[in-house]
Amino acid sequence: MHKFLLFLLLLLPFSGLTAQNGISGRIINAENGEPLPYVTINYGEDRHVMTNIDGSFEINYKEDQIQLKISYLGFYSKNLEISGAIEYVVVKMEPSVTNLDAVIISSEENLANSIIKKAIAAKEENDPEQALEAFQHKTYTKFIIDNQSDAVTLDTDTTNVEIGTIINTARAYLSEKISRTAFQKRKGRNEKILGLKTAGFEEPVYEMLALEANPYSLYKEDYKLFETDYAGPLADNALSNYNFQILDTTSTERPAYVIYFRPKRERTVAGLEGILYLDTASYAIQRAKAQLLGAIKLEVNHYYKYYEEAAIWFPERQATSILPGSGTKDISVFGGVISVGTLQRSDNIINRILGSGKVNPDAILSSSSTNYDVVFEAPKDLEQNTASIEVPPGAGEQPENFWDANRQEPFTYRDENAARYVDSIIKADNIERRIEVKQALTNGYYPLGFWNFNISGIYSSNGHEGWRMGLGGKTNSRLSEYFNLHGYAAYGLRDEKFKYNIGTKIYLHKSTGTNLNLDYTDDLREFGTFRYRKKVDLFSLFTPRFGNIASYFNHRTLSTGLEHRFNPYTSSELRLSNSRISMNESFDYAYLHNGELYSEYDVTEVTFSVLWRPFSRFLHTPEENVLLERGFPRFTAQISQAVEGIAGGDFSFTRVGLIVEHEIRNLDQSRTEFIFEANYAFGDLPLTHVFHTSPNNVNEPKILNRFSVAGRTAFETMYFNEFFSDKQAMFHIRHQLRPFYITKSLKPELLLFSRFAIGIFEDVDKHPYAEFKTLKHGYSEAGVELNNILFGFGLSAAYRFGAYHLPEFSENFSLKFTFQLPL
């Protein structure tokens, strides 16, 4: 028995060698040596392949020899006889004038452009989301991160000798998904997850659901793939971004033009290279392939199916793969840049799964989605204001017969082994812990046991406290699934005083984000602040202008609040607070009210704050609402009412605020931001509760003495405490040009900005000890930033002009550095 097994083991490699021949090669233009992409190579009776975008191809065959019939529009066809002794061939093709459907083509590109123009004009009839009022279908998706080196191991059992072969034990990630997609023109597209399996993870990795591994449509203006936007080959401006060339026509029942497209402005606009099969009658997409070839090889295939009842080509299957490449060109993917072995951006989903910034040079990523049970009518249970992706309870616990009934491709022996192996790898490498840490860091925390430490509050500085040292954070689910405890303690080295906060958040209903908050705070606050309770800011290790603030008041605040999310796009908080406010040596102030000066007083406030993000994409699970993609515009509004006589409140006043933010991102990586804020207040308003415009200029005469860190929406040339208002409006415009690609690591970004503020202040005489100006004539400044010069540092320069221009040039000018730390 042993000898027989050994004989089989020795025989297997030789039988594999004799079973199949292989030929690879490249097809080039004989005149200039340029590679010819998507050349059709027919071999055997009915087999064919097409060259890649670099002209390369591979063919495996069992015969002793084969005939290759090579055809390419605009070139003379070639026939080659290949024997098993030939392993590599370079084929040179001679250009010619080609006849297509009895039309003599002297310029293939002009005819191709004409076809593309017609395809763009026909998008309303061919794009399912434009042509159809409604549709629904199920989708089966399989997603794999693999290793292209198959591992074969021999395992010997001392009691019973057996040879076991484990195929591909190096897979690093494997997931399956069954979903239902529903679309209505008035309500948009919604995906409901019916089943979800993620090998090795106790809890599903929900963020993977948002990964655009299989883009739904090629008709869109932007083609989104792995968090990166590419110019759409049928976008309205496609002829500005791509060169097109007609390659062939198919001879199927519904013939199609085969159109080759390649980027026209590769250094300016991210583009793909590929082929479109466009129906000769309707100019609809029948099939498409898109590729990127460089440090990696990325390939996406789209397959459409024609439905007679709807007279439309509908997406049937998408398949995406990423393999190691042989080129030197960096590829933009995963929202960043991939060069050989390195993923440049750290805050993407794939990197959180792999747990490292390094990509295995043998790694393979493959994803496929198959649509089935397509129905061209509106689902009855599609509600308005639902998240883009819904994960109902139980989706991750479906039985095996559910998967057997819905899988649209086999779950192979390799997949089963992969699932078992991934499970062991994830546990051995503590992958779930790595994901937990990286997700916490993105929000400014580091988890340790049941406590998430706040890394942004460890140290800071300002003009009153000097260096402020602190420690704080909040508990996580390891302590409780029903509440958290949070707080901090800080100490100012200059004012030599402790500050602290302690509180709890009780999760009343996680699915709707309904939480009860209780807090007590003893700390400092800047004059003229209006803190929007629901405003969302990207995490930063420090807020630049805070280091320049020198004037604070003390407050001891007890508050309770109720948070609630009305739908995935709208969240709110109702808050009741009582604050005991007192002055300190940083600012001598007293408020004149009814003939009495107040330097200490109580304020009781009821505040309602709301955040509305109607154009963002969200993932809604039974536990949380996850922002998938920031959409604009977004709106933040807040109203606060101070009540006199309740809980010792000394004053009655009303404050209202609104922020509108909009951002335009372009395919060339330039972007423009618009920020509008309006504040309105009336009643008995002490200076602590009016408004400032986020000034960020230290009160020093020399420019270099004012050198500090520039903020994103701060007025860099406005001095602290120079202006206050009880009614004001601000407008910011920031335009960043596309990065300058000097080297791989040196990509500075030039940004131009302009800011304007106008406001008034009634009853100035109620603040006798405070000297400040109003903004009734309008304040203007403009400037420039050169960011990411080195290690995230850059420079900012701004100049103040208009009604509040000061006599000396140095008084109007600010020079500061910028700092951007991506997380």
From TrEMBL:
InterPro entries: CarboxyPept-like_regulatory, DUF5686. Coiled coil: none annotated. Residues 1-19 form the signal peptide. It comes from the Bacteria. Keywords: Signal. It holds the Pfam family CarbopepD_reg_2. The keyword Signal applies. This is DUF5686 family protein. It comes from Autumnicola edwardsiae.
